[in-house]
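Co-fold these.
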Amino acid sequence: MTQVDTTAKVTKLNRVERNAWTKQKIFDAATKVVGKYGYAEASVARITEQAGVAQGTFYNHFENRQELLDQLLPKIGLDMVEFIRARTGTADAARQEIERFAAFFDFIREVPEFLRILNEAEFFAPTGYLKHLDNISTAYVRILRRARLAGAIEDYSDEEFEAIVHMLMGSRGYLSRRYSYSAEGVTAVPEHVISAYRKLMTRGLFNAPGDQDKP
Amino acid sequence: MTQVDTTAKVTKLNRVERNAWTKQKIFDAATKVVGKYGYAEASVARITEQAGVAQGTFYNHFENRQELLDQLLPKIGLDMVEFIRARTGTADAARQEIERFAAFFDFIREVPEFLRILNEAEFFAPTGYLKHLDNISTAYVRILRRARLAGAIEDYSDEEFEAIVHMLMGSRGYLSRRYSYSAEGVTAVPEHVISAYRKLMTRGLFNAPGDQDKP
Amino acid sequence: MTQVDTTAKVTKLNRVERNAWTKQKIFDAATKVVGKYGYAEASVARITEQAGVAQGTFYNHFENRQELLDQLLPKIGLDMVEFIRARTGTADAARQEIERFAAFFDFIREVPEFLRILNEAEFFAPTGYLKHLDNISTAYVRILRRARLAGAIEDYSDEEFEAIVHMLMGSRGYLSRRYSYSAEGVTAVPEHVISAYRKLMTRGLFNAPGDQDKP
Amino acid sequence: MTQVDTTAKVTKLNRVERNAWTKQKIFDAATKVVGKYGYAEASVARITEQAGVAQGTFYNHFENRQELLDQLLPKIGLDMVEFIRARTGTADAARQEIERFAAFFDFIREVPEFLRILNEAEFFAPTGYLKHLDNISTAYVRILRRARLAGAIEDYSDEEFEAIVHMLMGSRGYLSRRYSYSAEGVTAVPEHVISAYRKLMTRGLFNAPGDQDKP
DNA sequence: TATGAATGAGGCTTCATTCAT
DNA sequence: GATGAATGAAGCCTCATTCAT
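Predicted complex below.
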């Protein structure tokens, strides 16, 4: 990911760098705090304490609390997109979808804060949530259209794609909540979850392949 | 629904009845308030004002604010189950699933508060949310197993059913958020959403039928 | 004055009385605090501390800080009007005006907080200030018209009366600031201030009398 | 007025000049800000932003915020004295007073910031206010004594003059607040205000003339 | 001298909960 | 059981001032 390592020693930074550095510290602190306690408990006091700066400093970098909260998801969401893209091979469309599905669950283990940030955003950071949703669904619909063009999908209209994408996102959300949380952090999803997803998708959405062996 | 008519005249009630009556008033008020403003804005002051009782009265009937909030979803959730069951015919399993899907969207128009209560509950009333999820997924898995017994579904294990059910619930959640909200209230979902769902399910989950004409 | 004696022992008060009592305590505390430190320093914390109640209590009785501040001047202003009226005799119009002038300075010695509350209100409690100004100038214009009717004033139109009244109020304001403040509280104005006022008014506004001996 | 044109291009200035220039920019910015928003809203941030300098720069030129605020009124006040003097003719003393009165209202239209700076100074810049008051009343008393020497005023002592001057200043203050403010800026006072003032003064303070036709 | 980020005290307000009547 | 005023902790944000560059 692009996350700056905030634990590094501060050596020689000019003004601009120090400024960016502080903002990043606050941002990372917010990620941690929201990931751990949720948006509702992510008070400015808690965030700045975690960041190791004064409360007032917060307002030198963000207009207000909400502005920061609304930036959280879109930013990490892009990291996720990049992560998933990197994990997607060149197999047939159906297999690729399974890879994306699996990569999603890999990502939430790499960035365990993401899950909570994603799930709660709708209610605590609606602006950021919409932005994220738009980011994702646009990209996803494009993928599906490309698959249709390649003949891997038939009989779905563009409008239906949009609905499908929301089902895919909703599925991941609910599955992650059900299967990824545990007492001590985020865990991998069981194999049968992936196989159920594979069956539903390869049979319901794609033409044939992908539905034989596990990847 | 089982909602008591709180507008009726209070005539002759004995002590026990008056007590239950007050509790119900608070409960209904909470439903309205949460449905309209969300859990976060559902202060005890607002709920009791809506109920027409004093703030202190609240604590004669509920241990604390959270206890009430956690009861909201499970109670209405059961209403929903009942509503959907009543709308499910005797057609083949695939068609029934489409009926259930459609009935869900009918229900949220009948009880517009439900959507918000459902969607926010996960974060504001986690205990109630888990209870609801358990209620629903248990019932749903039972339905799927029955369909498998009847030969309408093949090749899915019980564990996979549970995963599927979460996908179904997640799909509904995301679709409802995307397509049912509008400026003035809750609206019907577009036809293409239902058709996309039908295609995905009948092809991906069930054997053959259901995927021809619209029901 | 109508000010309740807030130092009295609380004996047996019913709910309504206790409520009014608390509100009065806050009101009186605000009077003291604003009188001593000015509106700008009259924080809710300071007022409630002076009143001996919790900060939260404040908001059970006033919508917000400003609402209380805006009530301060009009309320005390009416006390002042009453005070002055009681001190005005039945002499000729010019003499009565001198009596009012003197009574004003007596009042600010009786209620030393008044001066600051009055003078600062324009900027910190504009709503209350306008209300007060209206209260006073309406009453004052009425007095002048009556004097004109009685033949004690000639050659001034109603519009001019309004201007005159503002000059009278402005005069008192500036004079009080110049001559009434001192290191330890509010003091009487020197005799020559009153005589200057008497000369200006009896010669400039009224016909003849009043301008002979001091009252 | 003596206001430096802060919009001029900065060409070749030596160190001392640049220094004075910066200070003047801050000063003018403060005048604008206080005139428009009042002292309370005149934060250092706002002033420096308006001046186009950094916040830190402020403290290279002024000890603290209050020091600047206290300089505002006396400085502009002297501009006003000069302005009024220039508008005062050589007529009899009573007429001259009316001219001064009118010139005051002309001035506040030329420098619309003045009104607010003057009116609020008492509470937000007390030190500066006292200095201003002293400036004005000293000059004014001198004028009145000269008129007395010339026979235009009789029967007022020096002490009474001081009181009279405060009445004059107070009158102007209240009248300006009542009649000069409007939705969009500072406007001329109605004719009847001037006539009322003329009557009161020429009859109450001066001997005879001045009180016939309008000047 | 100019800069502007950092500081932290302090202000207003909300709200779940308690408790005397 | 019903009432509603009282409580006080906690939240967000502003702002004068400092200080390292």
